[in-house]
Amino acid sequence: MIRVQQEDFDIGAEIAKLKADRTDIGAIVTFTGTVRDQDGAVEEMTLEHYPGMTERELSRIEAEANARWPLQASLIVHRYGALKPGDNIVLVVTASEHRDAAFDAAKFLMDYLKTSAPFWKRESGPGGSHWVDASQSDTHAAARWRKTKHAAE
Amino acid sequence: MRLLYFAWVKEKVGRASEDVAVPEHIATVAELIVWLKSRGPEFANAFETQDVTRAAIDKSHVRHDTRIGGAREIAFFPPVTGG
Q1: How far apart are CA A75 and CA B27, in angstroms?
Q2: Residue B50: strand pairing partners
Q3: CB A72 within 8 A of CB A95
């Protein structure tokens, strides 16, 4: 399941929905990304996105995670629009019988999402407004998953 | 062909999208970027660091050597920063 939306999400409600009417799940892992104020430098963060491509990319990434790990359920919710420090940005939930798959898949989803999902952050604060630069560490994190995939084949 | 621009590429180009008649001889994304840069200073500026510019054809990421024939929409944007 993937959703791209402006509204906030409720982590507890999403877990409850995922678990509803099933008792075969042994492990649920969640990751939440939130807006940091960076010591007062950031007063607002605006997320621009490419409607249509965001959903496509998140679905593609989710399908790959489900192909690599025995997941019983997964959810990605990504917001766009104007956010304030402390606000939720992204939620990743993975569920499996045992914890290794849930933990690894959640990390994979975040590493891939950060390098391929078409969102762009603009931060503004007392110092003005600027577009956030993509980070090298995110690129390396995604690349490591490609290496582990080839190693496993 | 519909062209879309996002983030600071959009700001520099001064528009979010446009429909253009791409010359027949333009075969790849790289060639399209070269042609776009020739259209005006705002384009030259937006694509100045063209190695950094990312492209998508019909909502899928593509490399700059990808052929554009048959594309319905092509988008240009900076490296993504979601998550």
Answers
A1: 39
A2: none
A3: yes
Smallest Cα distance from A122 to chain B, Å: 8
**B32 close contact with A: CB closer than 8 A:** no
Maximum distance among all Cα pairs of chain B, rounded to whole angstroms: 39
* Cα gap A77→A2, rounded to integer Å: 6
Residue B5, CA distances (Å) to A145, B75, B78 in order:
29, 6, 9
**Helix or strand run (H / E) with residue B61:** strand B60-62
pLDDT tens digits, A84-121? 999 999 999 999 999 999 999 999 999 999 999 999 99
Q: Structure pTM?
A: 0.94
Within chain A, where are the H helices?
11-19, 53-68, 99-116, 136-152
The shortest C-alpha distance from B2 to chain A (Å) reads: 14
